[in-house]
Write a structure and sequence with these properties.
Mean pLDDT: 89
Structural class: alpha+beta
Strand content: 15-25%
Number of helices: 16
Distance between the termini: 34 Å
Low-confidence stretches: 405-416
Radius of gyration: 24 Å
Number of strands: 13
Strand order of the largest sheet: 5-6-1-7-8
Shape: globular
Largest sheet: 5 strands, mixed
Order of helices and strands: EHEEHHEHEEHHEHEHHHHHEHEEHEEHH
Helix content: 25-40%
Length: 416
DNA sequence: TCTGGGGTCCTAGGACCC
DNA sequence: TCTGGGGTCCTAGGACCC
């Protein structure tokens, strides 16, 4: 018997599989998974990248994150599907409902990945690997898409196990299997090691996860700080974070968007920031939080980035107050060059139950709060464009920007 | 026609206080 | 009189994840 049993469940090519399953169940005869197909953005809006690809598309050299026109060069008759996030949220929910029938504790890690804790369920469900097959097959047969399930004694190893071979597979990666299954993998495949760290480690002669595992941990800590010790532990399969319910722990809320056209006048920038702020503050209120910090980010045409943030004197969830800060932050940081992308983000969240009236201007603040909640209600019931600020009339800027595609934004919280 | 959008965590340096 | 050292808070930016 093992101390701990954790599963990592990961939908294979999630967006594409979900589109395929949905379309087949609605009378389509072509399975998107069997032709060169991708789910991707809109090149006209300059947000055209590959979000998910079929295996035939992968075989033609198409990669996730690649710009659409490049993917089209590799495959001119590539089938391109626009993302439909509300469908994906439903699929994600259905997948997690099946998992929750078995697991006492489920942690949603992203829209298409979850951890499930099975520690102490041996009497109830028997052999964990058999159970993993049961769950995997039920998702496939009942929902029409496949998942990989990784089984191990902590979250890191369960996740790495799930990555081993895809699709539609169950893998274990227990500590006694590290040498055989884990250590031969290239260093860049380790969770936590990305584009910047891979070449750094390679220059030290660390090419595989095993090379990293065998390094002196103090040397790594000296070279890379705290992070050096973390990745050394990962390489040795050491990780002890708990599987926690995802309800708590949101740290910040932000929306950002690339503009259809580069922009160089302050007024339009302000308007765009207002439309982002509308979405961010609506999501903030929906989450039941107030924010104590506001930040603005600017990406210029040459892709140079700046960000500017400021702590507030008191927390707020009011659109106008947040926007006043956003506008100030923008004005302080903009260098008058052409802007490609703008972002608004709030953090230092605290529960709005603890809301306290400011000492001054009590009446004005109460009025603002009531106005916000009325607008939120209308937008939730009738769509986000049902009520808009007059400043957006006769402008090309959409009154509410951020979140998911052109559809009315569906609150994550009310769907997941 | 270069390179989306949503997050989290860590670090470094400056300000400020004692 | 020429300036130590620790602690904390704040901001900017980088790295990573999906």
């Amino acid at each position: 018997m093992r101390d701990r049993i954790v599963f990592h469940i990961d939908a294979n090519s999630a967006y594409l599989s979900w589109e395929a399953a949905y379309r087949l169940s609605h009378g389509d005869t072509i399975d998107l998974r069997e032709i060169p197909a991708i789910v991707g953005g809109d090149p006209v809006k300059r947000s055209g990248i590959v979000l998910a690809k079929s295996i035939p598309a992968k075989k033609l050299g198409i990669a996730t994150g690649e710009v659409l026109w490049k993917a089209l060069q590799k495959c001119p008759n590539l089938k391109i599907i626009k993302p439909n996030y509300s469908l994906y949220m439903k699929c994600s929910k259905a997948m997690n409902e099946i998992i929750s029938e078995y697991a006492p504790q489920v942690q949603r890690f992203s829209i298409d990945e979850s951890f499930a804790e099975f520690t102490g369920t041996n009497k109830l469900w028997g052999d964990p690997v058999q159970l993993a097959y049961t769950i995997k097959n039920r998702i496939r047969d009942e929902l029409g898409f496949t998942v990989n399930i990784g089984v191990s004694s902590n979250k890191l190893l369960a996740k790495m196990a799930g990555e081993l071979r895809k699709p539609d597979m169950v893998h274990t990666l227990f500590p006694e299997e590290l040498e055989e299954k884990f250590w031969p993998l290239p260093i860049g495949e380790l969770y936590g090691i990305g584009r910047a760290t891979t070449p750094k480690l390679q220059r030290q002669g660390i090419m595989t996860i095993g090379d990293l595992a065998r390094m002196d941990s103090e040397f790594l800590q000296y070279k890379l700080g705290k992070y050096g010790l973390v990745i050394w532990k990962y390489a040795n399969g050491i990780e002890d974070s708990m599987t926690r319910e995802a309800t708590d722990g949101i740290k910040g809320i932000g929306n950002s968007s690339t503009l259809k056209k580069d922009l160089d006048d302050r007024e339009t920038a302000h308007l765009f920031l207002l439309s982002l702020t509308e979405m961010v503050s609506m999501r903030l209120r929906d989450s039941g939080n107030m924010c104590g910090l506001v930040s603005v980010s600017i990406k210029y045409t040459d892709l140079g980035k700046v960000s500017h943030q400021r702590k507030l004197f008191y927390s707020t969830d009011n659109t106008n107050e947040i926007f006043n800060e956003v506008r100030r932050l923008f004005d302080e940081s903009w260098n008058n060059e052409a802007i490609r992308h703008l972002g608004v983000r709030v953090s230092h969240l605290s529960s709005s139950d603890d809301y306290q009236l400011p000492i001054l201007d009590t009446e004005k603040f109460e009025k603002n709060r009531n106005l916000d909640s009325t607008i939120d209600d209308l937008r939730l019931r009738f769509g986000k464009n049902s009520i808009i600020r007059s400043s957006f009339l006769h402008t090309p800027i959409k009154p509410v920007t951020g979140g998911v595609g052109e559809d009315d934004y569906l609150m994550m919280g009310s769907i997941l």
